[in-house]
Design a protein that fits this description.
The protein is mainly α. The chain is built from 48 helices and ten strands.
């Protein structure tokens, strides 16, 4: 044991606010004379020592601190722990130690519990005593027993608190235990920022690799970051594989293994190896472990207790249903790291044999139990294990992570037929490059195996490859499948491996066990892509090398399309299409479609036409002949030709369950204005993605359906689908999709409310869209905010938002969506009194809307056009225009837009003192808004109806005894507007009143509320 004479001031602890608060509360109770005890339990590297030091540093000015750190080498010496504790200096209270007569030598060997209690009381005479023991689990048994006995005694009136750190809480049963969890993503990222603060910058891909490999372990995070050069951190040079620096942490995790029985170590090795072909976090199959343990010579009774009763393996393994998990992620890596290569290889080969038997016969005959070479049988000496482990550090550091997220699946390769899981296990056992095994993994990575599993198989194949070109091509193919699996961070990490192999990688370090990606999540086909994949094409084994020049740019471009600047995606995909054209026609077409989509999102009509033109000039199947030609024709003004072609896209040929074709059908329907067909295509596309994937397409399927439902007036359904899409976009790392979905949610909230939700989604959409050039999302979000302003009676703000989008100029909105906002701008400008000054621009915008309405099949367009003309018409024509609009609404349906027309017509009638006539349209507006749950709009209609003299129940918030309860409905509306900062003239414009009427009502409001100014009114209503 090594006593510590000083306690260093700790660095800032990230992500430990709750734990620090618990320690502060414990120390506060100690100062009040209420001692206690707490065990900080955590595996190595999670910061229990740092928390102990933080507590000691906090307490040292308030009383003495006894500090001791355990040393494993003295664990066999009785009472060595107590000698170290009582022989240490009293930190922060040296006088107290001197008075207590503590000698510099160790206490007598026979110290007993009563003696320990007496010495602690002596120390506590100098003030409240804090006893800190780090790594207390490594104390000798006698010292642990004495310490546990004494730690149970403090309570009210005690002047001693015990704070212990241990690898687990079992060594101090009965004491309160605080178990430390790994750092969350935010805390780990903040710590990494601090660790790399002196560098030129941290590349996002490098950040993701370090964070994932560290797994929330701060010590490991610091070690990994500290071993990388500035060029590696900045992404200028490739990262070494595996990342260096984790050896010490893994060795600390493995310390407990040496004291375990040999059969327990064997079971742990089998459990760690069996996770290699499973998805990350899925654990191992308990029945497979039972068969493997039985075949490996472990007693059946021991296996039953360990696997099904949780006995015999301490707290290292946990069972959940039929799955067995390691309690801590790094423990599995430490088991593989610590095991000699021969034993680890034997475990993988045994599992491969069992998985092959299960694949061949649906089960395996374990009746002939026999020892497997390399699995004891005859246990090896600890020295031999340690020596071998040291020689295999380089090849084992990332054995677990090399196949993270792989799923067991059955497939076939050239004879003999092997399940993919068995191939993965054989790859883990491979001592070096193996062309045949790599080819088998590549051939097995086909549909219907999930994209994640295909990616992991291709990663294994790349690591087993013998040539740099083939290795790079397989990494690129693995990256594509990781992207399709919804893991863009892994895809980028794999793309970084498509260059030359790092010089520090050991070619002889079994690729199945060592030089794997820090994180391999999933797998993807080099051959036979899933039919549901809109961007993959047939790539047969052997042709992958030819694809290498274009496949990596293609994946880069598709990643940028969903999570980067879309202008970059457009250029990258055009370049990838040219590179892929000689080798993979289908994927080249998909690259052009992606380039067109990027240009559409950016509002780049010329770029869109360029990509579509290239697509139209490229031979394609029936499902792609009409779509590019039809979209190009519409944008170029050849509307009749374009519509004829797009109508043929509404029933796509080929695979009826192809989600990409169905999404294109939905886009064609929206361009045609056939909203019902767009909703049908969107629903079918969503069903296809849910059924067959890929996961990365789910946000787009939900976005397309939600937008079609918005156009159809199904706002609740649009909101539900957009929220689901937003969660899917976040889960699959697609911030561009998140921006589009936020815009859709803002549009839904501009109808349903509340205004705060609309504003929040609108701001989120703009924040995500602006950096990546998403002009369509910007246009939709701005339109949503303006529509919410209209609902709240703020036409001036709405007009100010919409004018730049609709009018000609550099800030004009997206070419395909700005026309939809024209009716809102016309309404806002007219209600704000801008008709005279904006007359020319308003009429030009309405003419453009009329041009679009005449060529679209949107059933609501004629009604909105007639409403715009009614707003702009002179008084003697407006009546007829409103009647025309309402007649079109009767044919088209759509509660929301029809209610808006009723509201505007009623307002127009009331302004002309035709109050009795106004009540009917206003009443219809109120009912229509209530029917579609447009609460803010309904409140506006109710206010207009009350102003027209018809009693309408006041909003619930005004009848609950609030400050406005004593006011009339008209006074309440005026008071709210004034409290928001509106002038009398602005209030008059919002409520269709004269400024004199507003002034009259406002005086009565002041009198009723006993206030004297607008400032007092604002404070009263907005406390």
């Amino acid at each position: 044991m090594t006593p510590s004479t000083t306690v260093r001031s700790p660095l800032r602890l990230y992500g430990r606010d709750d734990e620090l608060a618990t320690l502060e509360n414990l120390l506060t109770l100690l100062r009040r004379g209420d001692g206690g005890a707490l065990v900080l339990a955590a595996p190595p590297g999670l910061g229990r020592t740092a928390l102990l030091r933080a507590a000691a540093e906090t307490h040292r000015d308030r009383g003495p601190v006894l500090w001791a750190t355990a040393a494993s080498s003295e664990r066999a010496v009785p009472y060595s722990g107590l000698r170290a504790l009582l022989g240490s200096d009293v930190v922060g209270s040296g006088a107290a130690a001197s008075d207590a007569g503590v000698a510099t030598g160790a206490p007598a060997p026979g110290i007993a519990r009563d003696a320990l209690a007496g010495r602690l009381r002596e120390f506590a005479d100098g003030g409240p005593l804090l006893v800190c023991v780090d790594d207390a689990h490594a104390w000798d048994a006698a010292s642990r027993a004495a310490l546990t006995f004494e730690a149970r005694r403090p309570g009210a009136g005690s002047r001693t608190t015990f704070l212990l750190s241990a690898a687990d809480g079992t060594a101090f049963a009965g004491l309160p235990t605080l178990r430390l969890a790994p750092l969350d993503d935010a805390a780990a990222s903040a710590l990494l920022d601090r660790l790399t603060a002196g560098t030129e910058g941290l590349d996002p891909v490098v950040r993701a690799e370090i964070l994932h490999d560290a797994g929330g372990n701060p010590r490991l995070l610091a070690a990994l970051a500290g071993r990388l050069t500035p060029d590696q951190l900045a992404g200028r040079t490739p990262l070494p594989w595996p990342l260096p620096g984790g050896e010490a942490v893994l060795a600390a995790h493995a310390e407990r293994l040496d004291d375990l029985p040999d059969r327990t170590r064997t079971l742990l090795l089998l459990a760690a190896a069996a996770q290699e072909h499973e998805p990350e976090g899925a654990g191992a199959d308990a029945l497979l472990l039972l068969r493997a343990g039985t075949r490996g010579g472990l007693p059946r009774a021991f296996l039953d207790r360990a696997l099904f009763d949780g006995a015999g393996v301490g707290d290292l393994l946990q069972r959940a249903g039929s799955r067995v998990h390691f309690a801590h992620r790094l423990t599995a890596r430490a088991v593989l790291h610590h095991a000699p290569w021969a034993r680890r290889r034997a475990a993988h080969e045994l599992l491969a044999t069992l998985l092959t038997e299960a694949g061949d016969r649906g089960g395996a005959d374990d009746s002939q139990v026999r020892d497997v070479p390399g699995l004891p049988g005859a246990p090896e000496s600890r020295t031999a294990r340690t020596t071998t482990a040291r020689t295999t550090t380089a090849r084992t550091t990332t054995a677990r992570t090399t196949t993270a997220r792989t799923t067991t699946a059955r497939t076939t390769t050239a004879p003999p037929a092997l399940p993919l899981a068995a191939l993965v296990q054989r790859a883990c056992a491979a001592p070096g490059p193996d062309a045949a095994l790599a080819a088998g993994l590549e051939a097995a990575a086909v549909a219907p195996i999930p994209h994640a599993a295909r990616s992991a198989a291709l990663v294994r194949a790349a690591l087993l490859s013998t040539g740099p070109a083939l290795r790079a091509a397989r990494f690129a193919a693995a990256a594509e499948q990781a992207r399709l699996a919804g893991d863009p961070a892994l895809a980028r990490a794999l793309l970084a491996r498509t260059g030359p192999r790092p010089a520090d990688a050991d070619p002889a370090a079994g690729p199945g066990t060592a030089a794997g990606p820090v994180r391999s999540g999933g797998a993807g086909p080099v051959a036979d892509p899933a039919p549901a994949d809109p961007v993959t094409a047939s790539v047969h084994a052997g042709a992958v090398t030819d694809l290498a020049p274009g496949l990596a740019p293609y994946v880069h471009g598709m990643l940028a399309l969903r999570s980067g600047p879309v202008a970059d995606a457009h250029e990258a995909l055009l370049a990838a299409a040219a590179l892929l054209a000689p080798h993979d026609h289908r994927r080249s077409l998909d690259a052009l479609l992606g380039a067109a989509e990027a240009a559409w999102a950016a509002g780049d009509a010329l770029g869109y036409l360029d990509a579509m033109g290239r697509l139209a000039r490229t031979p394609a199947g029936e499902d792609l002949e009409d779509y590019p030609a039809g979209m190009s024709a519409v944008l170029e003004g050849r509307t009749a030709e374009g519509h004829a072609r797009l109508r043929r896209c509404l029933a796509p040929g080929g695979d009826p369950g192809d989600p990409a074709a169905l999404l294109r059908a939905g886009v064609a329907a929206l361009v045609l204005g056939d909203i019902a067909a767009a909703c049908r295509a969107g629903a079918r596309a969503l069903a296809a993605v849910r059924t067959a994937g890929p996961d990365t397409l789910l946000p787009q399927a939900l976005e397309h359906l939600a937008y079609a439902e918005l156009r159809a007036g199904r706002h609740a359904g649009a909101r539900a689908h957009a929220l689901e899409g937003l969660h899917a976009a976040r889960r699959t790392g697609q911030p561009n999709s998140s921006a589009h979905l936020h815009a859709v949610l803002a549009l839904a909230a501009s109808v349903e409310g509340p205004a705060e939700v609309c504003a929040a989604h609108g701001e989120a959409a703009l924040a995500g869209a602006a950096p990546h050039g998403l002009a369509q999302a910007v246009t939709l979000a701005t339109w949503a905010r303006a529509r919410a302003d209209l609902a709240a009676g703020r036409p001036g703000e709405a007009a100010a938002r919409l004018a730049p989008l609709v009018k000609a100029g550099p800030g004009r909105g997206h070419f395909a969506t700005r026309t939809l906002a024209v009716p809102c701008w016309v309404e806002a400008a007219v209600l704000d009194g801008r008709l005279s000054e904006e007359s020319r621009a308003l009429h030009a915008a309405v003419d453009e809307f009329a041009f679009w309405a005449a060529r679209a099949a949107d059933p609501g367009a004629p009604a909105q056009l007639a409403r715009c003309r009614a707003l702009l018409a002179p008084a003697d024509e407006a009546d007829a225009r409103y009647a025309e609009a309402l007649a079109h609404h009767e044919e088209a349906g759509g509660d929301f837009e029809q209610a808006r027309t009723h509201l505007l017509y009623g307002q127009w009638l009331r302004r002309r003192r035709r109050t009795r006539e106004a009540r009917g349209p206003l009443r219809d507006a109120l009912v229509g808004f209530q029917r579609c749950s447009a609460r803010a709009w309904a409140e506006r209609a109710a206010g207009e109806l009350r102003a027209a003299g018809e009693p309408v129940p006041a909003p619930r918030r005004d009848t609950a005894g609030g400050p406005l309860a004593r006011l009339t409905p008209q006074q309440q509306r005026i008071a709210r507007c004034v409290a928001e900062g509106a002038t009398n003239r602005e209030v008059a414009s919002r409520l269709s009143l004269s400024p004199r009427t507003v002034d009259h009502h406002l005086r009565n409001v002041f009198a009723a509320l006993a206030i004297r100014s607008r400032t007092e009114l604002a404070r009263l209503l907005n406390p």
